[in-house]
Write a structure and sequence with these properties.
Layout lengths: L1 H25 L5 H8 L4 E7 L6 H20 L11 E7 L4 H11 L5 E6 L3 H14 L3 E2 L15 E2 L5 H18 L6 E7 L2 H16 L3 E8 L8 H10 L3 E5 L3 H13 L6 E4 L19 E5 L9 H14 L8 H4 L5 H11 L4 H9 L2 E3 L11 E3 L14 E6 L2 E6 L13
Parallel strand pairs: 1-2, 1-3, 4-5, 6-7, 6-8, 8-9, 9-10
Antiparallel strand pairs: 10-13, 11-12, 13-14
Helix pairs in contact: 1-2, 3-10, 4-5, 6-7, 12-13
Length: 424
C-alpha cells in the first residue's frame, strides 16, 4: 500500500513540475509544446498526376522533380505567409502514360478534402481527362498542356499558363522562316509527322495549313497513336526519300524523339531540318545524336534562358540529381514548374484563404509583371484570359536549337543564350 501511494505521489509531482516548466517556456498556463503544435499550420497539399511509368515516364519524372524543387524553395523561405507559413506538400500519383490512368489517379488523390491545388500532367490528352475531375470537384488546376481544347470547354477552375499550340505556331513559324531566309535558303517543301496527342496533332496540322497557304508544298504526312511508337524506320525512310526542306515533327515523348534520332543517324540525314512542337527536344538524353542534333529546332514557351533565376536552376538540378538523374541543364520538362509553382504560390499568398473558390477567383484576377514570379515567362508577365489560358498580351515563344552538343534558347534575342546557327 505504501509503495503504491509513493508511486501516485511521484507521478503527481512530476506532472506539476512539467506544467510549471512548460509555463515558463510557453507563457502563463499554456504548455510550450501545446502552443508550438497549435502554431504549426496545416500543409498546402497539391495533387500531382504525371507519368512515372510507360512511354512518357521520363517527361513525368522530370516534371515532378522540378515541382519538388520549387516547392522546397518556397518552403525554405517561410512558406505561404498569409496562411501562417503553411508549407507545400506534393501528393503524387502515376497516370501510367494513359488517358484513363490520368482520370483515375486524379480522382483518387482528390478524395482528400485538404487538396487545395491540382497539377495534372503536361500532356494535353492526359490533362483533358484529369481536369474533368478537378473541374467537377471545384479544385483549381494548373497544367502546361498546350492544346486549345483544354481552355475551350467553359471550365472555371482550369488554368494554363502557356500559349496554346496555335499561338506557338503563329508566333514561332514565321521566326523560323526568317532564319532560313537569313542563310539564303527558303522553305519550299514540308513533311508532317506526329503522334495523335491532341496538342501535337493541332500544332502539326495547323502548321501544315499555315505553310501551305504561303505556297509551301506538303510532300507527305505520317501519324501514330499516342504512346505506341516503337520504330521510326518506315517514317524516316519516307522522309529521306521525299527530302523536304523542313520536317514538322509532333512527337511528345522523349523516347519517340530518340527513335527518330537513331534512325536519322543510321540513314545519315544530317541536313534534314526538323521543327518540333515542344521544347522537350532539348532533353539531354538525346545528346547521343551528336552533330545530327544541330538540325533540330523547337518552339517552346519554357526553357532555361537569360532571365531564369540562377538559384532556381541550381535547385532544380540538385533536386533531380538527388532523386532521379544527373542532368547537365534543365530542359523543358524539368523547367515546366518555373511557370507553375510560383504562380499558384503568389495566388495563395494573395488569397490568404484555404477556400478553393477564393483561391480560384484570386488566380483569375492575377496580373503580374516584372517580378521573380513571372521571370521565366517569355514576356516576363502572367495573367489569364476568362478561359483560363495565358493572356494573349503576354504570349511569347522561344526557339531552341542544339549546337555542338548543347541545347540553347536562340530566340528572342533579349533572353537568348546563343545565336541561331543553321547549316545546310
Amino acid at each position: 500500500m505504501k509503495k503504491k501511494l509513493e508511486t501516485k505521489m511521484s507521478r503527481r509531482s512530476f506532472l506539476k513540475g512539467a506544467v510549471a516548466g512548460a509555463a515558463l517556456l510557453g507563457g502563463p498556463g499554456i504548455p510550450y509544446i501545446a502552443r508550438n503544435a497549435a502554431a504549426e499550420p496545416p500543409p498546402i497539399k497539391v495533387a500531382i498526376v504525371d507519368a512515372l511509368s510507360g512511354a512518357y515516364s521520363r517527361n513525368g519524372n522530370l516534371g515532378i522533380q522540378g515541382t519538388k524543387a520549387l516547392m522546397g524553395w518556397y518552403n525554405d523561405r517561410g512558406g505561404i505567409k498569409s496562411l501562417g507559413g503553411a508549407k507545400f506538400v506534393p501528393v503524387i500519383a502515376d497516370n501510367k502514360s494513359t488517358v484513363e490512368g490520368s482520370a483515375n489517379a486524379m480522382e483518387r488523390l482528390c478524395r482528400d478534402p485538404d487538396i487545395l491545388i491540382a497539377q495534372p500532367t503536361w500532356g494535353s490528352s492526359f490533362a483533358m481527362a484529369a481536369t474533368e475531375v478537378t473541374e467537377r470537384l471545384g479544385i483549381p488546376s494548373f497544367t502546361t498542356g498546350f492544346s486549345e481544347k483544354l481552355n475551350q470547354r467553359g471550365f472555371k477552375y482550369g488554368f494554363y499558363p502557356y500559349p496554346g499550340f496555335l499561338d506557338d505556331m503563329r508566333l514561332g513559324v514565321p521566326v523560323v522562316m526568317d532564319m532560313f531566309k537569313s542563310t539564303g535558303r527558303e522553305i519550299k517543301t514540308q513533311f508532317v509527322t506526329s503522334s495523335n496527342n491532341i496538342s501535337d496533332l493541332v500544332f502539326c496540322q495547323q502548321t501544315q495549313k499555315f505553310l501551305e497557304e504561303k505556297g509551301i508544298k506538303t510532300l507527305g504526312t505520317e501519324f501514330w497513336p499516342i504512346g505506341t511508337l516503337t520504330d521510326a524506320s518506315t517514317i524516316m525512310q519516307k522522309i529521306k526519300r521525299e527530302n523536304p526542306d523542313i520536317v514538322i515533327y509532333g512527337g511528345s515523348a522523349v523516347s519517340e524523339m530518340q527513335l527518330f534520332l537513331m534512325k536519322q543517324k543510321e540513314l545519315r540525314m544530317k541536313n534534314s531540318i526538323f521543327l518540333g512542337s515542344s521544347g522537350f527536344l532539348g532533353d539531354p538524353t538525346v545528346k547521343f545524336g551528336g552533330e545530327y542534333l544541330d538540325s533540330w529546332l523547337a518552339l517552346t514557351p519554357s526553357f532555361y534562358h537569360k532571365r531564369t533565376p540562377p538559384e532556381w536552376h541550381k535547385r532544380i538540378l540538385d533536386q533531380c540529381r538527388k532523386e532521379y538523374s544527373d542532368e547537365p541543364w534543365a530542359g523543358q520538362e524539368l523547367g515546366f514548374p518555373w511557370c507553375l509553382v510560383p504562380v499558384y504560390a503568389e495566388a495563395l499568398e494573395r488569397a490568404g484563404s484555404r477556400d478553393r473558390k477564393v483561391i480560384r477567383d484570386t488566380i483569375a484576377k492575377l496580373d503580374i509583371q516584372g517580378t521573380m514570379t513571372a521571370s521565366c515567362f517569355v514576356k516576363n508577365a502572367v495573367a489569364f484570359e476568362p478561359t483560363g489560358r495565358l493572356a494573349t498580351k503576354y504570349c511569347g515563344i522561344m526557339v531552341i536549337q542544339w549546337q555542338k552538343g548543347t541545347c540553347y534558347c536562340i530566340y528572342p534575342p533579349d533572353i537568348a543564350m546563343a545565336k541561331p546557327r543553321l547549316v545546310f
